[in-house]
Design a protein that fits this description.
- With 357 residues, the protein is α+β, with helices and mostly antiparallel strands.
- It is 30% helix and 19% strand.
- The protein is built from ten helices and ten strands.
- The strands form three sheets. Strands 5-4-3-6-7 form a five-stranded mixed β-sheet. Strands 8-9-10 form a three-stranded antiparallel β-sheet, with no helix packed on it.
- Helix 3 packs antiparallel against helix 4 and helix 5 packs parallel to helix 6.
- InterPro entries: DUF5641, Retrotrans_Pao.
- This is DUF5641 domain-containing protein.
């Protein structure tokens, strides 16, 4: 019987100093462990600390959450959100947690037991046969607290349609406030990267792609290149990794990325079966809920607005003493203008290291 491990395959399985791969059964697992150690032993590289998911159907155990694919990302996102809330409240490491955050964490921890009964089919080899019609579907979404992307593989063989989660990512939004459309754009960006690596790693360059979003205003991807630096750079990145014509609009209630974008507890996750994909994806393509909605390009492609040169003539402090509004004088008259930060000439002198005359 031919070996299942060779130097080239072993090279492709390494991420930094960790060897990560998948095999069909327990017998192949034992062979891979033995053959990989034989290949690396002449160079004195000792592969050790082997860990693997339990391949026996009769044994179910979750000792800790190690989910590189992202099946449980709606759940694992919860403690990250709570941690960010602690940062915002400036809670020190040795301080007692606020009661509200503590209760949320205890609930999250207590519900982890539901993951013990979670069974997910991960093998894709059966779906990728030569006579199957396959599609990769990327879904993106964002909320005030986090943004997410997930990829599903849809296959059809002899009229039988199957759908399965391939990869998912969810991240906490930056602490610095930003707009909802820009958060959507962040989701598009990580989604495009995830889609690109998935196609490369699984050898699916030939598989057609559909990219879905429930936001119309954030679909800059199909617009012209008339954006600010941050938006333009990300749009160009997305266009390099995906085809702009593959992006489609979908109603938010039909978007499976909505669950990880708002996060949830383990009980809700196990009941949702979201890794099986939305039910409409298992229907014929002509029944997919394609939306005719499109961005208002007259607005999104319009020229950027520029504030006229103005001189601050009056500071208007708030009740706490901080200045958030100023009165400015322009060529056309005076007006009130909200500000985020005020830098005086004295501070400018310190920053530039020169003296103002």
């Amino acid at each position: 019987m031919a070996g299942i491990c060779n130097p080239q395959k072993l090279l492709e399985t390494f991420c930094v100093d960790n060897c990560v791969t998948s095999v069909e059964n327990e017998e192949q697992l034992k062979r891979f462990m033995f053959e990989s150690q034989e290949i690396l032993s002449p160079a004195k590289f000792n592969l050790r600390g082997w860990e693997h998911t339990n391949v026996s159907a009769g044994e179910k155990a979750v000792h800790r959450i190690f989910d590189t694919i992202g099946f449980t990302c709606p759940v694992t996102l919860q403690p990250k959100i709570l941690l960010q809330e602690c940062w915002k409240l400036r809670v020190t490491w040795d301080a007692e947690l606020p009661s509200l955050i503590s209760r949320k964490f205890e609930k999250w921890k207590e519900q982890l037991r539901y993951l013990n009964d979670l069974e997910i089919t991960r093998c894709l080899s059966n779906e990728l046969s030569l006579n199957s019609e396959s599609y990769l579907h990327l879904f993106c979404d964002a909320s005030k607290k986090d943004y997410s992307s997930c990829i599903f593989l849809r296959t059809e063989i002899d009229g039988i349609i199957a759908c399965q989660l391939v990869q998912a990512r969810a991240r906490v939004v930056p602490i610095k406030a930003t707009t909802k459309p820009r958060l959507k754009l962040l989701a598009y960006t990580i989604g495009s990267r995830l889609l690109n690596t998935t196609k490369i790693d699984l050898g699916l360059d030939y598989v057609p792609v559909c990219c879905w979003s429930d936001s119309v205003s954030a679909l800059w991807i199909k617009g012209k290149e008339n954006w600010g630096t941050l938006v333009n750079n990300r749009v160009q990145k997305i266009r390099r990794l995906t085809n702009s014509e593959d992006w489609q609009h979908i109603a938010g209630i039909l978007n499976p990325a909505e669950l990880p974008s708002r996060s949830c507890y383990s009980e809700e996750l196990t009941k949702s079966l979201w890794w099986e994909g939305p039910s409409w994806l298992k229907k014929p393509r002509k029944e997919w809920p394609l939306s005719e909605a499109c961005p208002d390009f007259e607005i999104t492609n319009s020229k950027r607005l520029y504030w006229p040169l103005a001189k601050v003539i009056k500071l208007i402090p708030s009740r706490d003493g901080r200045v958030r509004v100023v009165e400015v004088s322009t060529a056309s008259g005076s007006l009130l203008r909200p500000i985020q930060r005020l830098i005086t000439n004295q501070n400018l002198t310190k920053l530039s290291g020169s003296k103002l005359e």
